[in-house]
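Hello Y.,

Per our agreement to keep a running log of every chain we model this quarter, I'm adding this entry. I've kept the format consistent with earlier entries: sequence first, then predicted structure.
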Amino acid sequence: MTLGCLSGASVIAAIQTHHWFALPFAGLFMFGYLFVATRLIGEQLHARRDSVVPVENRGMDVEPSAIARTA
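Predicted structure for the entry above:
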């Protein structure tokens, strides 16, 4: 997230100083860093949420007896 914000600052600086050639590159860096950071945070929250769910409820949409009959 820090690198994404830093790249965002470089986008703002490129606009203010009229460095139009650097703007797309700074924007790509900003987008890439923020995209990866948000995906990583989302995966971490998902993993943390799954670790809180009781073991007997994980992935059990059907009853265990139904699984034994199909095997």
